[in-house]
Amino acid sequence: MTQTLRFTPTTTDAASQLIDLLERHRDRCPYLEEDLARYRTLSATLADQRCRGEHALGAWRTALARRWDCEVAAQRVYSAVQRQLGACYGDDPAYGQLIAPAQPAAVGTPGALLREVRRLEAALELLAPRPQFADEGRARLRAAANDLAAAIEQTDRYEALRRSALAEQRVVASLLERACARARRALAKHMPDADLA
Questions:
Q1: Which of the four pLDDT bands, split at 50, 70 and 90, describes residue 1?
Q2: Buried b (16+ CB within 10 A) or exposed e, 138-168
Q3: pTM higher than 0.90 for the full model?
Q4: ω into residue 129 within 30 of 0, thus cis?
Q5: Residues contacting residue 41 through CB under 8 Å, at least 6 positions apart
Q6: Which residues, 6 or more positions from 170, have their beta carbon under 8 angstroms from its beta carbon?
Q7: CA–CA dist 101, 75 (Å, integer)
Q8: Among residues 40, 132, 133, 172, which is most buried (max CB within 10 A)?
Q9: Are 98 and 122 in contact (CB under 8 A)?
Q10: Are 131 and 88 in contact (CB under 8 A)?
């Protein structure tokens, strides 16, 4: 489930409203210059963080799609080699332990699938006599495992970037909301007749 940062009207609309308000009253209240500069900086930082967050989310989604494709490809290769082994050895108990999945129900995660693909590749190396398809099967399993490992690593890296961008957005949004409240209080204190809506 993707998590996106939802900005309240205070954080989304307040930037332009407060900047307009501070600019309208800056000639009457020179002390507002510092608040105006701070608010502009925070507003620009939040816009930059949002852009970075959207980019990180897009990269993460692309990586997830690639990982899914690699999972499907690895599962197909794994199943095809298992079928070949089953056809070759049948129910021979001498090979059953080596060929059968280590934990049939454990292939529910990308990491578990990767381990099973690598385990089956290693099992093909140990078979004696080696079936005709062993070398080709090992090569297919190795390629699928390498692709899946790279896709898992990339997805994890982009997930970390996405989470980091989201956390940074929250910090900047919080600072922006505080700056907004501080500026409004200062205006209300020094200019009680000003329209702060």
A1: very low
A2: bebbeebbebbbebbebbeebeebbeebbeb
A3: no
A4: yes
A5: none
A6: 5
A7: 12
A8: 172
A9: no
A10: yes
| Tokens coding 14 | 């307040």
How many Å apart are CA 173 and CA 55, to the nearest integer? 18
pLDDT band at residue 88 under the 50/70/90 scheme: confident
pLDDT in tens, 26-35: 777 667 777 7
pLDDT tens, residue by residue, 92-132? 766 666 676 666 555 689 999 999 999 999 989 888 788 89
Single-letter residue type at 62: T
Q: Look up tokens 């290769």; give the residue.
A: 77
Give, in order, the Cα–Cα distances in Å from 43 to each of 23, 55, 174, 178. Answer: 15, 19, 11, 12
Q: H-helix or E-strand containing 85?
A: helix 32-89
Question: In which residue are the tokens 């608040």 written?
Answer: 35
